[in-house]
TrEMBL record, chain A:
Domain Glucose-6-phosphate dehydrogenase assembly protein OpcA N-terminal span(s) in chain numbering: 51-166
Protein name (record): OpcA protein
Chain intervals with Basic and acidic residues compositional bias: 323-335, 354-375
Biased composition (Low complexity): 337-351
Region feature Disordered, mapped onto this chain: 317-390
Pfam families in UniProt: OpcA_G6PD_assem (PF10128), OpcA_G6PD_C (PF20171)
Record-linked InterPro entries: G6PDH_assembly_OpcA, OpcA_G6PD_C, OpcA_G6PD_N
Species assigned in the record: Streptomyces longwoodensis
Glucose-6-phosphate dehydrogenase assembly protein OpcA C-terminal domain span: 170-299
Signal peptide: none
Automatic annotation (TrEMBL), chain B:
Known EC number: 1.1.1.49
Protein's gene: zwf
Entry keyword Thylakoid: no
Segments forming domain Glucose-6-phosphate dehydrogenase NAD-binding: 30-213
Annotated protein name in UniProt: Glucose-6-phosphate 1-dehydrogenase
Species in which this protein is naturally found: Streptomyces longwoodensis
GO molecular function, one term: NADP binding
Family annotation (HAMAP family): G6PD
Length: 390, 512
């Protein structure tokens, strides 16, 4: 059931929700949370679709806040709120209200959203794109216990990671972090199977994919060893190589769905590691609404502390992307670890060296060059301008 | 290979990191009787669903053992079909590719020594090829009479030996015997080969979300526990009704009956969870201790003739279909005294429950398929409203709906809108499907995962099984020597004797 309300107010929308529920005969409310999606018209459809799919696991009231662009000064001074109320089969397993904001009210979206929140239920705010610099201070973000952003959708993902680390408030989370849960769980399972000490790690994946950095930072944070981020053609993350004191442990996923886990002295094993769609990510995100301390800790590790020394980077890349002689690889990594400890100032050097390189180039350049890209991006100091610019 | 190092030693594991699921360590599952219905409809799909949710270790292996002349490929094809037909989660090729690498089939009968040698060879081969590390669970999905021989064969061929820190576990299905004596014999046989903590008895009811929720409802909330005792509760009704007849299970069912098939395990477990005291912690030992205590405190009524009822379904109409009576079913002796319906009254002799009757009933060919626990409260001691106002008001009740339509209902009185004061029962409903995931994990998924993790929270222990038989045996003995089952038409809620049993005490059965 769908009701269109033009030039309306929050209280009229509430009335339409109650009437709609009566009309389809389900006056009971079994919804467990309110999901606020803040988006532009371009991304509204996909986000709403994902949210509706996720609502099968988490019945929720979904409020889609679409901020419309006003093209003339006259439009900007007027303000109008249009709403589309969807119930029943049209709204997954919950209720959906699409709010379209024009003119001045765009800057006061929280005044529309506040009366529409479910009583006593948690609020999750999700920005599929254009997340504010400091989600917790954003007027809409302040309404939520949980604020979901997605650095993957950012223009300069790695730089945005640094910004997120600076403004982190408990309750913030990033879909790029959600994306790597299966990897993290598989890597933890891999280390369950051996009793070895990890000496160094390499995380390989496509460029402009902050999930790779997050995974690398998580590993560095938990294992306290040098972690190198290197580039490949994707899709997504392609490999994690851990060198341990009893041989390499490698999780390699070339095709984006089936990975191979190889552990020294054990047979290679196939494991399913499919890239998941947004609905699954949102569903995972809604499963826990408490602050994710592991994420905070990984994020605050800092992108610039990856690739600890340029020597380390070379040591990895000489042996290539894993097919080489494993023992030699391990020795090299051992050296790298030593070097990292000896030269703490190294990250700066890397950042300087890479200054001014065209970003696009990195894809084709050899691994040594490309590997520095994340550090370079992180080191760039100009403010992140994306914000709500669109 | 280095042994499993435990989660404490793994720097990537952190209790605060709640996104990471519990993944079983390196292991494999051997299913005996893999061609059976249970295996195809429940076990294989559950293994796939676990893999699909990323909860199985890399290299997880599934070994089928059956008499059928199959190659590994035939077995894989069979699993494939079963998964496609019955799995809860969508079929994904890459998950299948992961699983298929560890699938093996061993052909043989249970008394065939060579087959068990082949099984041992297969397990050793899997340890090398898949890195299962010698950790195997043996799932005995076999008829009760084959239990002893399979267990003995496992022992004889060294398959139950735990070497180098690896584990070997046995998973057994009900029935756990047919009376106390046979249960003790069975336990002796199993424990001779497997240590008690490596034996997992599957009671699939305990794997259900709603059953685990009984504990959450009682012990995570403040509003229920204060009234969960004899001062407020009038009585408790635990019902498990099936709408089907015995189907093709005549051979198994005749001579066993509803009480042994359902009350001894499922209903007494539900009773234990409903009535037990709060455990000190949520670990297996603490839970088992409380359940054992409450089962030990169960007291039978003195007059078994008045407080127990058994019945047999007679021909009738069930949901628009004509159903034959139990005695006319294929393979049933026309003089059979087997009960297809059983209702008993039990009391629990402790401070919390003294004087509160627990009515347990189960049956086949009843009105509809439903399992529920209804805690019915006493009426308000004084009503300021006159009797006409509260004429339609029943007792308050909390109903835990175990299946289908899982959830909890609270029933209480409310004023009917209008100028006169009239109070009527209304219900407030919590439905799992409404507030949580559309498809909760299947009970078998949870239970298989727990077996692989070695987590025995949700499995009844030897003592619980033996205590349950101690409760049921006197009833069965009484029934053997007194009278015969009452007849009830198929599709109704049981024999009139059952209604009279409650009516004598001024109560009535809920219509579930």
């Amino acid at each position: 059931m769908k009701t269109d309300l033009t030039d309306t107010t929050a209280s009229k929308i509430n009335k339409a929700l109650v009437q709609g529920r009566r009309a389809i005969g389900t006056p009971a409310v079994g919804m467990v949370l309110t999901l606020v999606i803040v988006t532009d018209e371009e991304n509204a459809y996909d986000s709403l679709k994902a949210a509706n799919d996720a609502s099968r696991e988490h019945p929720s009231r979904t409020l889609v806040v679409v901020k419309r662009v006003s093209r003339s000064p006259r439009d900007r001074t007027q303000s109008r709120l249009d709403a589309e109320v969807r119930l029943g089969a049209d709204a997954g397993s919950g209720e959906t209200v699409v709010l379209r904001l024009y003119g001045e009210v765009v800057d006061h979206a929280q005044s529309v959203v506040l009366p529409l929140l479910l009583p006593d239920a948690p609020v999750v705010v999700w920005w599929p794109v254009n997340a504010p610099l400091d989600p917790a201070k954003d007027p809409l973000g302040a309404l939520g216990q949980r604020r979901v952003t997605d650095t993957y959708a950012a223009e300069q993902p790695v730089r945005e990671l640094t910004a997120r680390a600076e403004t982190y408030t408990p309750g913030d989370t990033d879909l790029s972090w959600t994306r790597i849960t299966p990897w993290r769980s598989m890597l933890a399972a891999a280390l369950d199977q051996v009793s070895c000490r990890v000496e160094s790690v390499e995380v390989e994946g496509e460029e402009f994919n902050p999930s790779c950095e997050l995974l690398a930072m998580w590993l560095a944070d938990r294992l306290d060893v040098p972690v190198k981020r290197s580039l490949s053609g994707g899709p997504g993350l392609t490999a994690v190589r851990m060198s341990t004191d009893c041989g390499p442990v490698v999780l390699d996923r070339a095709d984006g769905s089936l990975a191979t886990l190889s552990i020294e002295g054990q047979p290679d094993r196939a494991v399913a590691l499919k890239r998941r769609d947004t609905a699954e990510l949102i569903a995972e995100e809604l499963r826990r609404l408490d602050p994710d301390d592991t994420y905070a800790s990984a994020l605050r590790y800092g992108v610039d502390r990856l690739n600890a020394t340029s020597d380390a980077a070379e040591a990895f890349s000489v042996d290539g992307v894993g097919d080489g002689d494993r023992d030699r690889d391990r020795d090299r990594d051992g050296e790298a670890a030593g070097d990292a400890a000896a030269e703490p100032e190294a990250p700066e050097a890397v950042a300087k060296g890479a200054d001014g390189d065209g970003e696009r180039e990195a894809v084709e350049t050899p691994v040594e060059e490309a590997a520095k890209a994340p550090a370079r991006e992180a080191a760039a100091s100009e403010p992140v301008t994306k914000g709500a610019a669109k | 290979m280095a042994p499993f190092s435990g989660s404490g030693a793994n720097p990537l594991r952190d209790p605060a990191d709640r996104r990471l699921p519990r993944i079983a360590g390196p292991s494999g599952l051997v299913i005996f009787g893999v061609t059976g219905d249970l295996s195809r409809k429940k076990l294989m799909p559950a293994v796939y669903d676990l893999a699909n949710r990323g909860l199985l270790p890399p290299g997880f292996s599934l070994v089928g053992f059956a008499r059928r002349e199959w190659e590994h490929e035939d077995f894989a094809a069979e699993v494939h079909d079963a998964v496609k037909a019955h799995a809860r989660t969508p079929f994904r090729e890459e998950v299948w590719q992961q699983l298929i690498q560890g699938m093996r089939f061993v052909q043989g009968t249970f008394d065939d020594d060579e087959a068990f040698e082949r099984l041992r060879g297969t397990i050793e081969e899997l340890d090398k090829a898949q890195g299962t590390g010698g950790n195997f669970a043996f799932y005995l999905s076999v008829p009760p009479r084959s239990f002893p021989v399979v267990i003995q064969q496992l022992k004889k061929h060294g398959l139950a030996d735990q070497k180098n820190g690896a584990w070997r576990r046995a998973v057994i299905e009900k029935p756990f015997g047919h009376d106390l004596k046979s249960a003790e014999e069975l336990n002796a046989i199993v424990h001779e080969v497997f240590a008690p903590d490596q034996v997992f008895r599957i009671d699939h009811y305990l794997g259900k979300e709603t059953v685990q929720n009984i504990l959450a409802l009682r012990f995570a909330n403040t509003m229920f526990e204060p009234i969960w005792n004899r001062s407020f509760v009038d009585h408790v009704q635990i019902t498990m009704a099936e709408d089907i007849g015995i189907g093709g299970r005549a051979g198994y069912y005749d001579g066993i009956g509803a009480a042994r098939d359902v009350i001894q395990n499922h209903l007494l477990q539900l009773l234990a969870l409903t009535a037990m005291e709060e455990p000190a912690s949520f670990d297996a030992d603490a839970l088992a201790a409380e359940k054992t205590k409450v089962l030990g405190a169960v007291r039978l009524p003195e007059n078994l003739g008045e407080h127990t009822v058994r019945g047999q379904y007679a021909a009738g109409w069930q949901g628009g279909e004509k159903a034959v009576g139990y005695l006319e079913e294929d393979g049933i002796d026309a003089k059979s005294k087997t009960d297809t319906y059983a209702a008993v009254k039990l009391e629990i002799d402790n401070r919390r429950w003294a004087g509160v009757p627990f009515y347990l009933r189960t049956g086949k060919r009843l009105g509809r398929r439903v399992t529920e626990i209804a805690v019915v409260f006493q009426r308000a001691p004084h009503s300021p409203f006159d009797t006409t106002a509260t004429e339609e008001l029943g007792s308050n009740a909390i109903v835990i709906r175990v299946q289908p339509d899982e959830g909890v209902t609270v029933r209480f009185g409310s004023k009917v809108p209008g100028t006169s004061m009239e109070i009527r029962d209304v219900s407030m409903d919590f439905a799992y499907g409404e507030s949580f995931t559309e498809s909760s994990p299947e009970a078998y998924e949870r239970l298989i995962l727990d077996v692989l993790l070695g987590d025995s929270n949700l499995f009844p222990r030897t003592e619980e099984v033996e205590l349950s038989w101690k409760i049921l045996d006197p009833i069965e003995e009484y029934w053997d020597t007194h009278g015969k089952p009452a007849q009830y038409p198929a599709g109704t809620w049981g024999p009139v004797e059952a209604d009279e049993m409650l009516a004598r005490e001024g109560r009535s059965w809920r219509r579930p």
